[in-house]
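User: Show me a protein chain along with its predicted structure.
Assistant: Here is one chain, sequence first, then structure tokens.
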Amino acid sequence: MADTAGRVRELEFDLETVLATARERDDRCLLRGAGRTEFHRRLRADVRLDGGPGPRLGGRCKGGQQDQALGRSRGGFSTKIHLKTDFSGLPLAFVLTGGEAGDSPQFETLLDLGPDVRPRAAVTDKGYDSKRNRAAARVRGIAPIIPYKANAKKRPVFFPKALYRTRARIEQTFGKLKRFKRIALRCEKTKASFAAFVSLALAFILIKSVHTA
């Protein structure tokens, strides 16, 4: 019985030693984890703009639809292409605006774009009808062939209808441009990307006109 009691005491002593060693190991792990957590907290605080929660340095900002030539019109959310061509319907320049934008404010911009060649006439549709546009064309030495709207007060008796019929060529150019699916659907998000594809499509139209001439 004495030997058995002695062996039991030895086992209890060994068990207490093992438990003490395990508790000491756990305490060291907790201390290491606490130090590591505090270290990471200091790192996170250093890379932020301030002490509070917020975006990290170098984070990307969300881009909006402003200045991307997008607008809501009767046909939906779209982009309007204001195109300038020569007498044969070959593209010279273009301007992109939102679908809700009017045509008339872009008239002077289109007059100043393109090759440094002064045209003798500017043929447009009724959307560009305004006294300011006619005056801007005459100041540049260009004859404005712009039909008057039905509600215009002072409509001249004579209008060069034969010359105005040539405007059908720019409509044909628009038809060729809309054959490109990426142009008709506006697949690009940014204005710069869409303008690049419009330029590429117009370049294809010019190249094809040279080979078929």
